[in-house]
């Protein structure tokens, strides 16, 4: 399975940074995709890459083997043009030892997911050099607002950011502040927020709450900040206004969820 690692701001010769990996495999007329956030440890030939969270997967039925082969070639070419490098080694899932599993602690937080709208299109238009500079300014703006709002950055995923907040109001205000800050760079983002429990062990975090937050963000359009009903209920005494965005089925998440849009 060909694998590609997105070269982040820190480049590939630095240990301990997060990035995004993408894998593709063709079997007959079907194409199997796998992608997600990864953690890179070590440098050079000795580096190891781990999935930071369970990767997302997708199967595409192309009808014929030739169409599937053409799809794979085009997909690989797109990644190579957008700062992905071929990755020869495996991408492993971290296995917790029995001792480490006992160290898992539960935490409750508001989870914020930020994602750039049409990032691939913009990267292709600007070219690698200019896009790298824009992304540097983008992350600087996001981290400035996170610091102001006392948010904690958990992981970056290529052009996305996942962060947590102790208070939902702080997360919502940070989301709107990030939206306005990155517009000066010519970027539009979509944001999703959810509140729930997750487990933490050292620097690792796991839990369904993160997946729900990502699915909420995926429902947002350019410039929208969407929150789950959990976040809205926690902010019943807040002066922040919300508009009902309807009930949605979130991919891979049990039950249907009512979402709300943050009003300016």
Automatic annotation (TrEMBL):
- One MF annotation (Gene Ontology) recorded for this entry: adenylate cyclase activity
Query: GO annotations under biological process?
Result: cyclic nucleotide biosynthetic process; intracellular signal transduction
Name all Guanylate cyclase domain ranges: 110-217
The record ties this protein, via SUPFAM superfamilies, to: Nucleotide cyclase
| Gene3D superfamilies (UniProt xref) | Nucleotide cyclase
Which branch of life, at top level?
Bacteria
- Which PROSITE patterns does the record associate with it? GUANYLATE_CYCLASE_2
Name of the molecule in the record = Adenylate cyclase
């Amino acid at each position: 399975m060909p694998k590609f690692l997105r070269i982040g701001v820190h480049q590939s010769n630095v240990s301990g940074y997060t990035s995004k990996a993408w894998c593709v495999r063709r079997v007959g007329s079907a194409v199997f995709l796998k992608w997600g956030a990864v953690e890179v440890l070590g440098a050079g030939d000795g580096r190891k890459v781990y999935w930071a969270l369970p990767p997302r997967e997708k199967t595409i039925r192309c009808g014929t083997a030739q169409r599937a082969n053409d799809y794979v070639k085009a997909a690989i070419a797109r990644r190579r043009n957008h700062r992905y490098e071929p990755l020869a080694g495996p991408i492993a899932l971290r296995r917790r030892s029995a001792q480490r599993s006992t160290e898992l602690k539960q935490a409750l937080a508001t989870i914020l997911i930020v994602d750039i709208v049409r990032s691939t299109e913009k990267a292709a238009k600007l070219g690698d050099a200019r896009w790298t500079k824009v992304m540097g300014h983008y992350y600087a703006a996001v981290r400035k607002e996170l610091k102001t709002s006392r948010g904690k950055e958990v992981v970056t995923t290529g052009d996305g950011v996942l962060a947590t907040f102790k208070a939902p109001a702080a997360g919502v205000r940070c989301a709107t502040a990030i939206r306005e800050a990155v517009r000066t760079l010519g970027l539009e983002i979509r944001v999703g927020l959810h509140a729930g429990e997750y487990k933490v062990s050292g620097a690792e975090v796991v839990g369904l709450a993160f997946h729900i937050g990502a699915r909420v963000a995926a429902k947002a359009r350019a410039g929208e900040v969407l929150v789950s009903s959990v976040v809205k209920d926690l902010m019943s005494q807040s002066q922040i206004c919300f508009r009902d965005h309807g009930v949605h089925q979130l991919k891979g998440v049990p039950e249907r969820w009512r979402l709300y849009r943050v009003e300016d």
